[in-house]
Amino acid sequence: MYRKEIKVLDCTVRDGGLMNNWQFSDDFVRSVYNACVEAGVDYMEIGYLSSEKAFDRNVVGPWKFCKDEDLRRIVGDNNTSLKLSAMADIGRIDLEDIPMASESLLDMIRVACYVHQVDKAIELAHHCMDKGYEVSINLMAVSTVNERDLDEALADIAKSRVPIFYAVDSYGSMYNETVQHLVRKYKAAMPGKEIGIHAHNNMQLAMANTITAIQEGCTYLDATLLGLGRGAGNCHLEILVAFLKNPKYRLLPLLQTIQDHIHPLQKDIDWGYHIPYLVTGALNEHPRSAMKWMDSERKNDFVAFMKEMHDYQ
Amino acid sequence: MYRKEIKVLDCTVRDGGLMNNWQFSDDFVRSVYNACVEAGVDYMEIGYLSSEKAFDRNVVGPWKFCKDEDLRRIVGDNNTSLKLSAMADIGRIDLEDIPMASESLLDMIRVACYVHQVDKAIELAHHCMDKGYEVSINLMAVSTVNERDLDEALADIAKSRVPIFYAVDSYGSMYNETVQHLVRKYKAAMPGKEIGIHAHNNMQLAMANTITAIQEGCTYLDATLLGLGRGAGNCHLEILVAFLKNPKYRLLPLLQTIQDHIHPLQKDIDWGYHIPYLVTGALNEHPRSAMKWMDSERKNDFVAFMKEMHDYQ
């Protein structure tokens, strides 16, 4: 019943850190790591790979950098079946700051880019591959990219050596037919590449869109514990694991960490489905205005937010 | 882009009342009613139609009975385009307690039944039709009905005069392929009937399953404001209206009532996605054990609940 080729990637710390500047305690990160190991999850994306000069350590926590000494404090030598990933943003990491994979605890680097950065993303991705990493390119905000630009980007990636390419619903504005169309387009334009899915939950469709992506042949599935992530959050890892029939995955370790660390965090961080996130998702807008609203005293004035965002009634 | 034949049915008060014994203030119910009118929603299901002797008015609020005088206090003569519906459970309403439609503010009666009650449901439905009501039959808990029993029930309904039949995911255990299979089966077995969808959100799939049902030709769509409903709640009315492209629907009045009445209720009632509801949904179990757990002091001990429910890890 299950597909052996499916890989589940937890990005709780990486995407969730967008809500708290990666200010997670070591206990928190270690609990997520242990849960992923025990649950049989394939990859854990533990943060971003950034150069020290790009961000201030007084503002952002260690998972914005993913230095080896920080990783080692959590995972030791990582003598487990769980692979570790970090995301790299174009312009935030210098090539010389990326260690050889043989000297790093990281197994995979995922290069995030906007459509105008695809050539730079391919360059960075090739560099990482040459250093021994597994590599993907994650094209963000594709719901706002016009057809001409997207076709050109896909053609460039098709010609590259990069083996994995992600369908990313950054704004949580896609529904099943959008995902179906996009994944079919990706597969047709880039034969032989593996396709991944990264969904956001603005319209409570992240889990369903991930199922649609599976049905269309996606093999890399992003998810986070209790959906922890930017704005409305992500596809829930615990729902995904409950859905997948692969006997290697186990739900109980995930529930333990949700119970101990993730659920209590809801007191401090307002990720998940909230009306302002629905509004930006339905309008195919970046969630930043909704996040700003949710941080203000007017967070529960949904009508004012919608009026501010758009004149549709 | 939109389908004219689609009807949206709000069941906020009826399904939400399962969480608080229909103890809503008149202000609350009036706000939902006004929102539905202003938003262009087609039906509002305001409660259950029950005989007085079936329930104690000291325990349940007026929307368990939907007496004309209670309705009139909220809706006046209901000189609007919004139609009013009530749900009738088999055995909870005596035929003689149902007024003629011409003497009632109700436009529609939806007969809820389990598979062994289908013959009684058809009898009650015909009775209501003969009294002048629009009528549907809503077969609950179909995810636990075996194929032989379901085929027989569908054949009986196909032969009846009842024009509308609902696909009901009582346990929130269905995903898109389940809904697709079920709706196709219903349409094939009952040509000429309209099909409705009533989804629950245990696996955060209620909205997606409603979209799938639309794609399969369902025309009656149930939803509630902010998903208020039993356990994990229902398909969110505000997401559905944001999704539908029919220009007659308006989102802003729904957000106003969510802001004023529904969102504040989250302090008192724990509907919506919570891990215990995921567990019962994934196991295709009635949510009652999860609701009981959520009412206990151990509500956030997710691991203990899952261990109690099942030995799968």
Automatic annotation (TrEMBL), chains A, B:
Source species of the chain: Breznakibacter xylanolyticus
GO molecular function annotation: 2-isopropylmalate synthase activity
Pfam families documented for this protein: HMGL-like
Domain Pyruvate carboxyltransferase: 6-259
Transport listed as a keyword: no
Record-level GO BP terms: L-leucine biosynthetic process
Coiled-coil region list: none
Protein name, entry field: 4-hydroxy 2-oxovalerate aldolase
The organism's taxonomic lineage, starting at the top: Bacteria, Pseudomonadati, Bacteroidota, Bacteroidia, Marinilabiliales
PANTHER family: 2-ISOPROPYLMALATE SYNTHASE 1, CHLOROPLASTIC-RELATED (PTHR10277:SF9), HOMOCITRATE SYNTHASE-RELATED (PTHR10277)
Source organism superkingdom: Bacteria
Keywords per UniProt: Manganese
